[in-house]
Amino acid sequence: MYQKILVPVDGSPTSNRAVQEAVKLAQLLGSQLELVHVYEDIVYLISKDYISYEELQRTVRSCGEKILTEAEMLVKEVGLEAETRIIQASKERVAQLLVAEAERWQADLIVIGTHGHTGFSRLLLGSVAEGLVRIAPIPVLLIRGQEH
């Protein structure tokens, strides 16, 4: 049914829950997993005399790689393997990049955590998960964060 499951990760507890749910599906169905982290190009309007853009980009990428490594450890804890991929977003929307990656990897399903923001906070923060649901040509499984 779902042979290839793509899981976007951002290091949040909700993202980790999505990884855990994807692992359950992979165990049940014998699916392959790909963990993907998208980091955005950081453009500062600050004088270049005070900040090194290249160093900042290296730091952001390094943080993304750590997020991927931590997510990969969740998969390995249960004896599974996962491919990993880090993608830099310049001017593209994250949801579009994730759909492009799903198409490239020929994923059958995307499992993503959603923070469940509503109202004004959703307007400010946007929603990658909502964007994916709207444009993905394959099924998207949304995993809600735990209630407090």
Automatic annotation (TrEMBL):
Name listed for the protein in its UniProt record: Universal stress protein
GO CC annotations on file: cytoplasm
Family classification: Belongs to the universal stress protein A family.
Matches recorded under InterPro entries: Rossmann-like_a/b/a_fold, Universal_stress_UspA, UspA
Keyword flag Cytoplasm: yes
Pfam families reported for this sequence: Usp (PF00582)
CDD domains linked to this entry: USP-like
Keyword terms, alphabetized: Cytoplasm
Superkingdom of origin organism: Bacteria
Domain (UspA): residue spans on this chain: 1-144
Cellular location(s): Cytoplasm
Predominant place of localization: cytoplasm
Entry keyword NAD: no
